[in-house]
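Deliverable D5.2: sample structural annotation.
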Amino acid sequence: MAKAEDYNRFLKHHLKNPRNASAYLNAVLEEGDQELFLKALRKVAEAQGGMSKLASRARISRVGLYKILSERGNPEFRTVGSLLSAFHLRLAIQPAHGASR
């Protein structure tokens, strides 16, 4: 089996846990790349039951969800909140590294 397949299998298993998914999404957010973040959301969706299940839990059409998470996707803030809620996660704001009062 190829190493990439092993890694993808490990990642999928790892991202089923909301704590692990949270840490993964936070690490990707640190990169500051929206496209990369949307890819990470897709990976979490796949790990947590697939796009159909996520669409149902987030109350978004499956087709709409694919569009939102596509490379050209540009979800609204509330949509990201709905997706995170469907993953049993929430958005939090923290001071940037090195920020002072």
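Annotation notes: The mean pLDDT is 87. The chain has one domain: 3-86.
The annotation will be released with the project's public dataset once the embargo ends.
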